[in-house]
Amino acid sequence: MPDLAPLSSVAPPLVGPLDSAPRAIRLAAVALVAAIALAYGNTLRAPFLFDDAGAVLNNLTIRRLGSLAVLSPPADGSTTTGRPVVNASYALNYAISGENVWGYHLANVAIHALAALALLGIVRRTLAGPVLRGHFGGASESPAFLTALLWALHPLQTESVTCIAQRTESLCGLFYLLTISCFIRATVCHPLDDKPPDRAGAVWLTLSVASSLAGMGTKEVMATAPLMVLLYDRTFVAGNFTAAWRRRRTYYFALAGTWLLLAWLIVRSGGGRGASAGFGLGVSWWTYLLKQCEAILLYLKLSIWPHPLVFDYGTAVVNSLAVVGWQAVVVCALLAAAVWSLARKPVAGFLGAWFFLILAPSSSVVPLVTQTMAEHRMYLPLAGVLVLVVVALFGWIGPRATWLLAPVAIVLGCATVFRNRDYRDAVTIWSDTVARNPTGARAHNNLALALQQQGKPEQANVHFARAVKLQAGYVSAHYNWGSALLEQGRVAEAIAQLQMAVRLAPNHADAHVNLGNALVRAQQAAEAVRHYREALQLKPAADVYYNAGIAFIELGRSDDAAEHFRAALQLNPNLPGAHYQLAGVAERAGRLAEAEREYEATLRGDPDHVAAHRKLGLLLARSERLVAAATHFRAVIRLQPADADAHANLGNAFLLGGQVREAVACYEESLRLRPGDARTRENLQLARESLR
Prior knowledge:
The chain is an all-alpha fold. It has helices at residues 23-40, 52-57, 84-97, 101-127, 133-136, 141-153, 158-162, 167-189, 199-216, 225-237, 241-247, 249-268, 285-304, 325-344, 346-359, 381-397, 401-421, 426-436, 441-453, 457-470, 475-487, 491-504, 509-521, 525-538, 542-554, 558-571, 576-588, 592-605, 610-622, 626-639, 644-656, 660-673, 678-691. The chain is built from 33 helices and no strands. Helix 1 runs antiparallel to helix 4 (101-127).
């Protein structure tokens, strides 16, 4: 790093060539966007993975773009909890492409490209500014472009860009960079004196505050942005904190005011983001802090050598300082150096503050219990590392650094392309994660789920077993394994796993439901009812009422069954199965008119419901409405041409209606399908005799 001029005197404002948008910068911007498109072009078909389900697929608040619900994301601990701006971006995506992944990936890549352009502008204007201009001779374009290019193409960024749910990181990063970029543009527009900014400067300062406000609604790390702007002002513009505050007091009051939105969102979401972050969640601040000593050095290592990358590091913490003793010493030394540099080497100190301050919300003492380490947290801090490397190289060997860094950018871009291939399906990314992090219980659990969905149950069971062995009391693994075993038809084993899940988490509604389903299949309907009732107390749902109704039918308790089927229909009127079951209850009780109405309601909801057509046809035939009955028997034949009973029933309707030849044809077809049916053979003989 070159020696820098002292900050006691203020240099002239950034004017002149910076505002002329030279052709070189326009070409650099185009090249930057093109490089990003090439690096991330293979991600557009990557499926929804990991947290994407909570952010998009299960997020009902994004289904209507114009609804106020968009600004009230689910409080379930998903990546959208307490983050209305990113939730609104998903709503916009949903309005455009529904659940098709291409739109979400395209938006993520576009956000990343805009962030890279903002970084390009920040670095260019900073290097050409009064503090650093003398060290670069006004030639700021090359180091700025290479910094932005290295940052944009770095494989460490793939998680933030390719993983749809991590839009929170990239979108917040964009607003963070825009907050600083707009501030810099404001300082270009007016002299550095105590006079109010001119109109253009005021507009840029307003945009800076607006960007900060949007960022506060995107992710909590934005809380550090006002501090970084003040540090930037002191380091590169005003020269000291007093001058910065005196000249832009109103602006800083407005910028600090954006914290109010963040505070309100945190309080509104319960203070712990759906029990995913905060104190009192089973992870102490001390053990989490110790883990961050390991994490921070890993992040720095991956910044320089991005291999191996791990999609999910899990939830492990460090319980003893002795385990991370040397890492703690190194991190403390780096932090002390950053603090010292803020006073003695302000530019280097600013980069150190950039790294540590932006990481502070996620990588200090506030436990993020769902992920104790994550690569996406380096989205913005990586810029500080790369600026330091690029500026140091240009300061050491001058323009020749371009020939050294350009090939590095190409290599990083290729590495990003290869890394993005791992995201092509769930089995690939989780297999890679298990290979890199074999002790990660969650990775084994998620790989098992992906294998089960691919129709590889035996392989799935191996990883489910590994997950529950690695992490005692892993509720999700027991639940997922039990559900998979039930799907595989291994009912007794499924019951054992699901019972473990509800013992560990008595309030796990879905575990109670699936345990009830397994118990019904094991002919333990009474026990199943108990678990359905537990589930309904926790989370009333139409399908659970329906399943409970089926269990009551197994127990012969028709009235209780009917009550639950009606409750299901109150929650979901478009539930044909509930109407069908109510029809069966009514028919068995001799309430034939009611049964007929329920069968008709079934068919309104599901015109291809075979059993309802059959039952309604038989009911109509019993009341001698033969033409209507024949219509439903024909529907059964249309849907199931090989159904011998349907052909026989249609033959009976024809015979009773005097259409003997048609009856004979139906009986013959029925016997062709089922030659041993004695009753149909008798009816055929009767029909033939009546033709003589």
